[in-house]
């Protein structure tokens, strides 16, 4: 069966800046991306039905689509079984939210036509990533769900280092090639998953739930609190709490990151700190890309949202609920604005436009360091974001 994850326009803008560079189903929450979760449950490859500006990197599915799933929805066993039991021309909803539909869909059309479909209300709870803060808000639960999904019926590699202390041994899983020395792992309140060829250096303390991606490293004396996901090819130091760092990004030095989501190809300079709680304990407001204004999150703890390819200088201090777009470079004394548009260069005192040619040149250098070749599709996505952000 040809299954595709829909990148619906009504959800995309709510999840900027992360969906500026990827479909909603390529968002990581827990250990896996949303697409990877669905692929594990269905035991097959699943395509993206991405918006046109992303199709160079995320190509359209080939042929007719038989099952369309909303890309913001995270699967679980009950939901997957309900979807598998859908009949032709039936669609599943939850409180008005489109979840999935079975029928015949044209892969050339990104706007899904559901006229004539019989609607079925899903009676159980389901997890949908409607806003950027839903990523870290749901991360602990998704870490546990993905841990169960990935480790069922499998045996963890052993920790050979005699100086590493482990609490909750049965809740720790190591893939092949993990290197860990003189660390403390506490999995009593949540699982700890260390992916292939990941490294945990001396003195690091990690509390689960936690996931470390393939080829990623936790540096010496790092303090990793509950609810943290580190994607592949990252270097992480300092203190991190209830946050997601996407692949190929570095926070290698001291500094605090809490209730935050950091995109791919980002770098946080030494002693970069974000606030995740206002001094008056009020609800945190965050910039909304739909209304171009700040909206209430309903959260008391809410830190940083940083889009792909953005960077901070050493000693950068970021205020509660800060949003940084794509390809921005933040530096200078004091607190920068709590909304920094894509392709910004500067800080509190002055902010100018980061030239697209220089941004792409930097991206090429960063890709080269990771032995990843930049494609024309990658450059085109960045140019599209630049054109749209500078025309406002």
Automatic annotation (TrEMBL):
Signal peptide: none annotated. Transmembrane segments: none annotated. This is UDP-N-acetylglucosamine diphosphorylase/glucosamine-1-phosphate N-acetyltransferase. GO terms for molecular function: acyltransferase activity; nucleotidyltransferase activity. Pfam families: Hexapep, NTP_transf_4. Keywords: Acyltransferase, Transferase. InterPro entries: Bifunctiontional_GlmU_bac-type, GlmU-like, Hexapep, Trimer_LpxA-like_sf. In the C-terminal section; belongs to the transferase hexapeptide repeat family. In the N-terminal section; belongs to the N-acetylglucosamine-1-phosphate uridyltransferase family. The keyword Nucleus does not apply. It comes from Reichenbachiella faecimaris.
């Amino acid at each position: 069966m040809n299954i595709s994850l829909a990148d619906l326009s009504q959800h995309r803008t709510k999840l900027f800046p992360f969906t500026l560079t990827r479909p909603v189903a390529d968002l990581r929450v827990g250990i896996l991306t949303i697409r990877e979760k669905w692929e594990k449950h269905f035991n097959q490859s699943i395509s993206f039905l991405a918006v046109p500006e992303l199709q160079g990197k995320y190509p359209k599915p080939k042929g007719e689509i038989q099952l369309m799933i909303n890309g913001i929805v995270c699967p679980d066993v009950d939901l997957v079984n309900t979807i598998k039991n859908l009949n032709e021309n039936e669609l599943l909803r939850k409180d008005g939210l489109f979840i999935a539909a079975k029928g015949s869909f044209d892969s050339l059309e990104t706007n899904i036509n559901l006229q004539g479909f019989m609607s079925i209300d899903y009676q159980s709870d389901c997890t949908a990533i409607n806003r950027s803060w839903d990523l870290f808000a749901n991360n602990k639960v998704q870490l546990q769900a993905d841990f169960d999904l990935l480790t069922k019926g499998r045996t963890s590699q052993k920790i050979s280092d005699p100086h590493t202390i482990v609490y909750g041994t049965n809740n720790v899983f190591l893939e092949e090639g993990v290197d860990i020395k003189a660390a403390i792992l506490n999995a009593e309140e949540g699982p700890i998953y260390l992916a292939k060829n990941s490294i945990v250096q001396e003195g690091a303390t990690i509390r689960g739930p936690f996931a470390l991606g393939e080829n990623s490293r936790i540096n010496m004396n790092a303090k990793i609190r509950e609810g943290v996901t580190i994607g592949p090819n990252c270097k992480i130091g300092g203190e991190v709490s209830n946050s997601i760092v996407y692949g190929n990004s570095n926070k290698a030095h001291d500094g605090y990151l809490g209730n935050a989501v950091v995109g791919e190809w980002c770098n946080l300079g030494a002693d970069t700190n974000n606030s995740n709680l206002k001094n008056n304990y009020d609800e945190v407001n965050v910039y909304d890309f739909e209304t171009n204004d700040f909206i209430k999150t309903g959260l008391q703890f809410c830190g940083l949202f940083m889009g792909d390819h953005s960077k901070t200088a050493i000693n950068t201090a970021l205020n509660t609920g800060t949003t940084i777009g794509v390809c921005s470079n933040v530096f200078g004394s004091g607190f920068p604005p709590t909304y920094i548009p894509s392709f910004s260069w500067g800080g509190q005192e002055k902010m100018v436009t980061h030239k697209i040619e220089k941004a792409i040149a930097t991206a090429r250098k960063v890709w080269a360091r990771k032995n990843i070749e930049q494609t024309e599709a990658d450059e085109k996505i960045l140019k599209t974001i630049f054109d749209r952000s500078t025309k406002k």
